[in-house]
């Protein structure tokens, strides 16, 4: 993989069945990332009419907004969110080039991804950091 | 392709999707009822919205090839359904459309091969296998019977009914564990409607 484009940071898209969950996780992850330069974090939660569900439209829009040319890490909650992102990636030309579904728990993964992306790390490093969140045992 | 007749055109696929839409509309309440037993009670509504959007798109602009019709129909399902059935049924149609390529007329064997590719892609997308109580339990036995459309429709129907005693291993219903036993899988029921519609328009 190539490094980040000139000046661009890896973007993070947070997909949830719920608008509130996606938005709140974005706020939390951005808040914990510190005071420096922040990587773009864009929530894509619920359906366009505010209901629970997954919207390919909102996800696509969020991915393009998060894209600064260095790739976009997409984190999802479950079920149709996973399948919709995988189907959009399979389309080939709907999401920005360099968009990637990252296999990570949504909340813990989002914090790790945003922190890492905000350091200017590349997409591989962001993905690894988010996936490492699987190993944060709590007991 | 020797010995095969390439007789199915874009209009055939449009008529298949129209018959599917009518079937989904007619059975929408039953699909939602099935989904209220083991899911979140939106399957009928979601499928109805998706297929209605597909027909609106197809009726607005004519496509020249069977593959082209399936590609746009699949893309429309992914973007309008809002639940897991969107990407799953969307992938089924899209991948089938891709497999048919640019040909203006295709044989029943081409349709068979395309639908088999579509079903394989659904399995890959959702990570499910036969017996997991999903749409694949209707689709896999059905495409094995193609190009015999009557046998395929029958196999899909039987496959859907055969999900009743199964325990769900994928999707929201899998959280129910043993409690998912005793209900027909809504996705399999919808898949059977699509195969029934295909038989209907093939005659």
Could you characterize what this model shows?
The complex is a heterodimer of chains A (139) and B (203). Chain A is of the alpha/beta class. Chain A is built from five helices and four strands, in the order E-H-E-H-E-H-E-H-H. In chain A, helix 1 packs across helix 4 (106-118) and helix 4 runs antiparallel to helix 5. Chain B has one domain (6-202): Alpha Horseshoe (Serine Threonine Protein Phosphatase 5, Tetratricopeptide repeat), CATH 1.25.40. The longest helix of chain B is centred in the first third of the chain and has 29 residues, at 10-38. Chain B is globular. Chain B starts with 5 loop residues before the first strand and ends with a helix. The mean pLDDT of chain B is 93. Chain A binds chain B through residues 47, 51, 53-57, 79-80, 83-84, 86-88, 90-91, and chain B through 42, 75, 78-79, 82-84, 86-88, 90-91, 94, 121, 125-126, 171-172.
> Fraction of residues of chain A in helices?
40-55%
Task: Tell me the number of helical segments of chain A per DSSP (H or I, 4 or more residues long).
Answer: 5
- Biggest sheet details of chain A: 4 strands, parallel
Strand content of chain B: under 5%
CATH topology of chain B: Serine Threonine Protein Phosphatase 5, Tetratricopeptide repeat
Number of domains of chain A: 1
The global form of chain B is globular
By secondary-structure content and strand pairing, the structural class of chain A works out as alpha/beta
The CATH superfamily label of chain A reads: Phosphotransferase system, mannose-type IIA component
Radius of gyration of chain B, taken over Cα atoms and rounded to an integer in Å: 16 Å
Domain PTS EIIA type-4 (chain A): 9-139
InterPro entries (chain A): DhaM (IPR039643), PTS_EIIA_man-typ (IPR004701), PTS_EIIA_man-typ_sf (IPR036662)
Protein name (chain A): PTS fructose transporter subunit IIA
GO molecular function (chain A): phosphoenolpyruvate-glycerone phosphotransferase activity
């Amino acid at each position: 993989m190539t490094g980040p484009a000139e000046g661009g940071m890896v973007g993070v898209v947070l997909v949830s069945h719920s608008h509130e969950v996606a938005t709140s996780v974005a706020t939390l992850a951005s808040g914990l990332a510190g005071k420096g330069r922040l990587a773009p974090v864009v929530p894509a939660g619920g359906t366009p009419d505010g209901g629970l569900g997954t919207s390919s439209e909102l996800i696509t829009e969020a991915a393009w907004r998060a894209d600064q040319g260095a790739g976009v890490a997409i984190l999802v909650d479950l079920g149709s969110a996973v399948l919709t992102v995988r189907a959009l990636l399979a389309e080939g030309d709907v999401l920005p080039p360099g968009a990637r579904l990252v296999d990570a728990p949504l909340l813990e993964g989002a914090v790790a991804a945003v922190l890492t992306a905000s350091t200017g790390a590349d997409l591989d490093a962001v993905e690894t950091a988010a996936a490492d969140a699987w190993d944060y045992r709590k007991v | 392709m020797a010995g095969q007749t390439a007789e199915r055109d874009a209009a055939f696929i449009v008529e298949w999707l129209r018959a599917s839409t009518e079937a989904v509309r007619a059975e929408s309440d039953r699909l939602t009822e099935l989904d209220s037993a083991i899911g979140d009670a939106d399957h009928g509504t979601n499928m109805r919205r998706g297929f209605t959007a597909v027909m609106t798109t197809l009726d607005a602009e004519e496509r020249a090839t069977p593959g082209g019709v399936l590609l746009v129909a699949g893309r429309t399902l992914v973007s309008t359904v809002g639940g897991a059935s969107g990407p799953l049924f969307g992938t089924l149609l899209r991948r089938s459309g891709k497999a048919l390529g640019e040909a203006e007329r295709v044989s029943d064997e081409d349709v068979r091969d395309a639908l088999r590719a579509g079903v394989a892609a659904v399995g890959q997308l959702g990570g499910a296998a036969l017996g997991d109580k999903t749409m694949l339990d209707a689709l896999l036995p059905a495409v094995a019977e193609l190009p015999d459309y009557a046998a395929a429709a029958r196999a899909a129907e039987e496959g859907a009914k055969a999900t009743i005693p199964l325990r769900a291993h994928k999707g929201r219903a899998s959280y129910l564990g043993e409690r998912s036993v005793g209900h027909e899988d809504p996705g399999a029921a919808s898949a059977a409607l699509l195969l029934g519609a295909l038989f209907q328009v093939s005659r």
